[in-house]
Amino acid sequence: MSELLLPPEHRYAKIIEETRNSDGSELTILNLGPTHPATHGIFQNILLMDGERIIDAEPTIGYIHRAFEKIAENRPFYQINVLTDRMNYCSSPINNMAWWMTVEKLLKIEVPKRAQYLRVIVMELARITDHLICNSILGVDTGAYTGFLYVFQFREKVYEIYEEICGARLTTNMGRIGGFERDWSEEAFRKLDVFLTDFPVAWKEFENLFERNRIFIDRTVNVGPLTAESAMDYGFTGPNLRAAGIDYDVRKAQPYSSYEDFEFDVPVGKSGDTYDRFCVRNAEVWESLKIIRQALDKLPEGPIHADVPDYYLPPKEEVYNNMEALIYHFKIVMGEVPVPVDEIYHAVEGGNGELGFYLITDGSRTPYRLHFRRPCFIYYQAYPEMIKGSMLSDAIVILSSLNVIAGELDA
Amino acid sequence: MALETTYIQEKLSQKFGSNVLNFEMKRDIFSLEATSETVHEVIQTLKEDESLNFHFLTDVCGIHFPDNDENHQFAVVYHLHNWIENMRIRVTTFLKGENPEVSSIIDLFTSANWMERETWDFYGINFIGHPQLKRILNMDEMVSFPMRKEFPLEDSGRTDKDDRFFGRTIKQIK
């Protein structure tokens, strides 16, 4: 094998040399990525292949590493929120809300019910878009483009709702310490209503298109299966774990933001293969819709943020006319807010699993240490094990069904 | 909560004596400290003891404390979770500043593989027994460990972010 393809000290070189056949045929290597249209993100995998079967894989990650943990150690709390959007950018509001809840837990702030319910609504919307992207792209990777085009417009509808709430679409920077920056407009609720009427119809059709589709079933059933034990051992959480048959969901295990007020089921799969992961995500979308409807029905009136003048920016007219408000405004913008000394861990159910923030503060304006528990990073290490022995085309489908988001992987 | 923190403390103290210390309920997570020599066995006990059963490794991460004494320069923090009792536990171990090292727990949890690589990558903490301890997010040619506190992020001459100007006192945490 040419040295340009594989340096002689690479561990594959030895395997290739040892397994060379007498007729001159040998194992090959294939460089999948870093930029490859089918990986939907920047991942490199060096595959060792026997014909079209994968024998071994060596993943390299870190292509979009942005040192968020280091940057976070130099920023006041409200400026860290923009870092969290850029982790799982398919469901940024979940990351935003998770960060605010971490800070509120640190500061022992009780958020009003209305804000909590609105947070639940926007988090479930984000979960829907996350699952929608994952499942429709899985369809694209198996050759079914139609489903993707059909449901993808609804992501746009959700982004319009985000726009009404906070003005941004992809990297939302939504919410503040203590609640929301402003109450949701009537237009936002109107758009949400339209979404709740139109989307289930489309999602039902999307499901019908795939769930009993012979070609799709052939491509996904028994592809990349994972037992419950190994999923647990590899640190899986979220839909990928539930597809293997374990009903762990942070929303149920440690309810945050009033999730205990809503009735919803935790769908589980059985074999942990690509088809089960697809079905679990489909089912979770229905549960999310159920939660949103309940939250809208029960939505209480009242303030949309906690009364915490130390952390929550005062209204602009007061800043211009009132000395005290001006002082608060200045202190908050400069990041000079009181911070207790503490050590906390807060986890939420992100689009891909348990998204956790481990935060240590020493009383200064910035965190002493902030560690992101990124679900993708932890379960992506099982990928080589999952694709061993499968075909190259299956490796693409498995990667797609794991929903590995490059931003969350590399932080 | 069916699993009592006093029971965990008793169980571990019985087995490890003075090697496990500082049991404390830190907000909602029961925390303890273990010496770097015993932390592997402590986690093994937490995982394999039938009555404790902390079978899921949530997170591993490193921390740097440059102001501490020589034997407490680095910390590795393990978060474990018992899904059946729905209880989390945090195990911290402190390491010395010169060539910090601790046993890898990869034989207990496969998921520790990349988490320990990440900790090595950013803090230079050596995990003994790790099969492939190399950089994961940074490039292989890098020589420094960027999450250590002495590694500057921005111009160190900046004074506008100096906490002393706002009369703030910073507690040295340990």
What keyword list fits this structure?
heterodimer; A: 411 residues; mainly alpha; Cytochrome-c3 Hydrogenase, chain B; 2 domains; three-stranded antiparallel beta sheet; 18 helices; 6 strands; globular; B: 174 residues; alpha/beta; Beta Polymerase, domain 2; five-stranded mixed beta sheet; two-stranded parallel sheet; 7 strands
Structure commentary:
The complex is a heterodimer of chains A (411) and B (174). In chain A, 50% of the residues lie in helices and 10% in strands. Chain A is mainly alpha-helical and 411 residues long. Chain A folds into two domains: 11-60, no CATH class; 68-410, Orthogonal Bundle (Cytochrome-c3 Hydrogenase, chain B). In chain A, the strands form two sheets. In chain A, strands 1-2-3 form a three-stranded antiparallel beta sheet. The radius of gyration of chain A is 23 Å and the shape is globular. The two termini of chain A are 36 Å apart. The model of chain A has no long low-confidence stretch (mean pLDDT 92). Chain B is α/β, with parallel strands linked by helices. Chain B has one domain: NADH:ubiquinone oxidoreductase Nqo5 subunit (Beta Polymerase, domain 2, 2-Layer Sandwich). Chain B has three helices and seven strands, in the order αββαββββαβ. In chain B, a hairpin with a 4-residue loop joins strand 4 and strand 5. The longest helix of chain B is centred in the N-terminal third of the chain and has 12 residues, at 5-16. The two termini of chain B are 29 Å apart. The model of chain B has no long low-confidence stretch (mean pLDDT 89).
